Automatic annotation (TrEMBL), chain A:
The keyword Transmembrane helix applies. InterPro entries: ABC3_permease_C (IPR003838), MacB_PCD (IPR025857), Macrolide_Exporter_MacB (IPR050250). Its main location: membrane. This is ABC transporter permease. It is a multi-pass membrane protein. Residues 55-247 form the MacB-like periplasmic core domain.
Automatic annotation (TrEMBL), chain B:
One of its GO terms (cellular component) is plasma membrane. The chain crosses the membrane at residues 21-44, 310-335, 359-380, 400-420. Residues 314-429 form the ABC3 transporter permease C-terminal domain. This is ABC transporter permease.
Amino acid sequence: MIAIGPTFRALLRNKVGALLLALQIALTMTVVVNAIHVISSRGDLMSRPSGLDEANQFYLTSTGYASNFNEALVVAEDLRQLRALPAVAGAIQTNATPLGSSGWSTGLSLSMDEQASGVGAAVYFVDETGLDTLGVKLIAGRNFRANEIGEREKNAIDWPSQIIVTEATAAGLFPDLSPAQVVGKSVYISSTSQTTIIGVIDRLQAPWNGWSGVERSMLIPQRTLFGSSRYFIRAQPGQLNQAMRAVQDHLDQHPQGRLIRNVRTMDETRARSYRDDQALQGVLWVTMTALVIITALGIIGMVSFNVNRRRKQIGTRRALGASRNDIIGYFMLENLLTTVVGLVLGSVSSILLNIWLVDTFNLPRIGWLYLPVAMLLLIVVGLLAVYGPARKAAAISPALATRQ
Amino acid sequence: MFSYYLRQSLISLKRNPILSLLMVMAIALGIAAAMTTITVNYLMSADPIPSKSDRLFYVQLDSWSADEPFLEPNQPPDQLTWRDATELMRAAKAERQSAMATSMMVIEPDVAQQKPFSASVRLAYSDFFPMFNVPFQYGQGWHSDADQSRQLVVVLSHDMNERLFGGENSVGQSLRMGGRLFQIVGVMQPWQPRPRFFDVTTGAFADMNDVYVPFLLKEALTLPNGGNNNCWKPLPDATFQAYLNSECISNQFWVELSDQQAVADYQRFLDNYVTEQKKLGRFPRPLNNHLSDVMSWMEKQQVVSDDAQIMMYMALMFLLVCLLNTVALLLAKFLGKTPEIALRRALGANRRQLMQQHVLETACIGIAGGVLGLVLTWLGLLGVERLYQGNLKDLTQLDLPLLGMGMLLALVAAILAGLYPTWRACAIAPAGQLKTQ
């Protein structure tokens, strides 16, 4: 029969040793809980969809340099020919991409007043094929028409009279209205230009993944004449590589006084955009795993040593009728008691560390579920670690041990 | 005596090889985790220009909107408007000063085989080069006359000179940039301060620029904005000049001031300047102008990333666990040695001598753990660098002070871990112990 009382009293004979182990388990739990928390909150960030059909999309930058570079003409011709390539499903000129980390944003508000409440939203210039090429879904209103696409000079300050916004942008401006009700509403861009929301799309992230307003963006029906712009291209499903090769070959063969650079797939852009988060996850995984292993090895070392020290007592107990399982049970129970003390301490320090992380680094707070999961993990690890040395203890022959 | 203790220690370590190995491994892993993350933090927080970081000051003027600060709580903008940058340059009240901005230009190499490509441009004043101790391989920075007369002169980075001229002395040659011929006046040596302190607006560890040209060329050639551009006030009309006169911020400004008096004078000058501008209807916010020296600017801009700090704190806790582990194992081990200790006491060794011997034993563990730990640190840094793929460029290199620190940390940690177990084991009364045997 397993008895907590005697086991506990025996533990008290080496208070410091047990306390050290408990502290170690407490700290391990603290690190594990908070590391898993950081790993999973980064995972949440990384799993946010951009709204694009990323697997089939890429983009490049086209910069004019020749003095006779006629941007409007070259871009229109480029797009017409790129769209005709068999592997290409769509091609537009734009200024930025989700996850691309550079782009424009401007304010949208309900009145001209500079102090009027409004929201910031990312700006994407598109034409009437923008929705299809980006792969976003229109959930209310309509798309731009070909005759609504205007031109935008470099230092232009006015804005067109129709825009399409994301659902998050619509909700930011009109918290109480459904997307369908937002269609037809009049808003102001940069507090200066009045414009009408003609459509709402489900989702299109802003270029900055760390921005709190990352879900807010708007589509502007304009071709840009900035001297440099981005071609965003959607390949036929599964033909990204063919499309990339065909597009680059085509552009290389038609230099037209511009240069092509930064050819990049959306997959690569996503990886770059979240590289630091992914790396932090990796570092924390390694730290956490190594820590659990060290703690397990520590437990094995401690218990092995205790077993050796207590050979005589174990032999005596066996001689007095304790079964092998009693001995194994004893060491298991001893470790469980220490672990539980450690886990109670660990729960407190996990929460304290989390509070500090929340304060210092603006991390989200931990979910309560992490605590029982980490406890269970460490109890299992502890019991597994004890089992080996405990079996050795149980194998001690009573006759030999008592005679020494 | 020392060699005798050392021999005793090694015998004792060999007696429980697995336990000893466990302790060495624990210390090694703890040291490796701590040192890997400390290295990254240490290099991120390094002083990029130690010889004069206390004499270079970043200028901030609060030109932002009356309704809200640029950043809570009441922080002035991190850049200046074109108008203020050029006005402060015109006043020239500091020993040295340079406004800066970034842009992009297409370079058309003379060589037929090289295709045109776009280069990142830093716009600066002639003081930029002496102020930041820019090392030159050929030639030098442009003369201050070139600033005002907007001469088409250019300084190339080392890499750009390699790319364009195969590393040869290109000073005096001309280079077609943005459709105009620039004269090359200088070529830098490889120069990559980390952090890139003079402009952290696009990332403190971002790459350096390819070419450097006079600041006012932005206006003369209507060069596009590079980096960040923030506006709070709508522009009155659609011209480049309107943009330059606007409240949009995209310029940085540094001054060199040699003493406290100069700093106080310059601060007064800035406040007076803003007060004058207020009369023109600009600067709607209360006076809030800042001069920050290099290191405090790095701190304000949080050059050491949160992630790096989180990693470091986690790793330090890891080290702590490894130490607790070592303490517990040493305690178990030394308590197991009490009969031997009692015997040696009875034979005349005093407590102090026994303590010395055991401290030496733990020091051996520390040294072994430290050496192994530094090897693992090296591997750890390789791993971290691979994970970050260039985002931590030059931030994963061990130097001598770091190696020394790692060794010291291992030694101190091991000895600290051994103190209590040693004390406990040696505090035993020999008579009682011997009797029970």
